[in-house]
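TICKET: design request
STATUS: open
ATTACHED STRUCTURE:
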């Protein structure tokens, strides 16, 4: 009998040491949440903790330097189309006159034509926008009075830089007007310089067409008046 009593006391002590039903339910509720929208139960256990407890290998997501560089070095493109109150020939002459870019193109500090023949020229350009200055050679091809295309051949700042101007007839009944299509694409060579893309975009790219239009006003006088309802201006960029 004494031996049986001692056994019962041990069992009672073990039961006292166990958490109560309420505490077990509280712990369970803390670790489980009910998603009424899905009608399922999900534990709040961390995925990493669960993987560790199950003995599975844990692989943390990581973004490598090369992925970061790819995101910064993505090529940017911008295009603009508008009706301008100058003729195709007048606008073509302004754009094709590369030697005068230093006088009016945003942030262009130097523009020297070093080689020229019919439909082609090579120019040394210096473009400075805070906090960098870029010297590069521009290869320019042209078809009077329809097209002027320029590309950067040996720049240290840009991996790719190309501009294309196209001119076509303007509004019917307004002979001294034209439709100007301007497109530029650029890609910075280094990760550090690529962070200047927004500066280059705002200070140079977005002001380009207006700068050439103002230059035409200096050379050819007042532009043809275009009624507001006939004005057209379209911009795209990526």
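STATUS: resolved
RESOLUTION: sequence designed for all positions
ATTACHED SEQUENCE:
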């Amino acid at each position: 009998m004494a031996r049986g009593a001692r056994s019962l006391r041990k069992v009672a002590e073990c039961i006292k040491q166990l958490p109560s039903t309420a505490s077990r339910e509280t712990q369970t509720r803390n670790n489980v949440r009910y998603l009424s929208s899905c009608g399922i139960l999900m534990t709040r256990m961390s995925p990493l903790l669960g993987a560790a407890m199950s003995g599975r290998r844990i692989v943390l997501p990581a973004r490598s330097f090369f992925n970061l560089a790819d995101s910064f070095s993505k090529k940017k493109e911008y295009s603009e189309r508008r009706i301008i109150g100058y003729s195709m020939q007048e606008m073509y002459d302004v754009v094709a006159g590369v030697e005068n870019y230093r006088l009016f193109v945003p942030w262009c500090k130097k523009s020297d034509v070093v080689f020229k023949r019919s439909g082609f020229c090579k120019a040394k350009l210096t473009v400075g926008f805070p906090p960098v200055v870029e010297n590069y050679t521009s290869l320019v091809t042209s078809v009077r009075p329809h097209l002027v295309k320029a590309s950067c051949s040996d720049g240290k700042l840009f991996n790719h830089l190309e501009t294309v101007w196209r001119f076509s007839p303007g509004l019917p009944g307004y002979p001294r007007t034209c439709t100007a299509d301007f497109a530029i694409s650029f890609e910075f060579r280094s990760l550090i310089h690529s962070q200047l893309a927004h500066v280059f975009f705002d200070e140079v790219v977005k002001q380009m067409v207006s700068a050439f239009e103002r230059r035409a006003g200096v050379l050819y006088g007042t532009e043809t008046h275009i009624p507001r309802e006939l004005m057209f201006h379209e911009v795209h960029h990526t």
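CLOSING REMARK: The CA atoms of residues 113 and 123 lie 4 Å apart. The mean pLDDT is 78.
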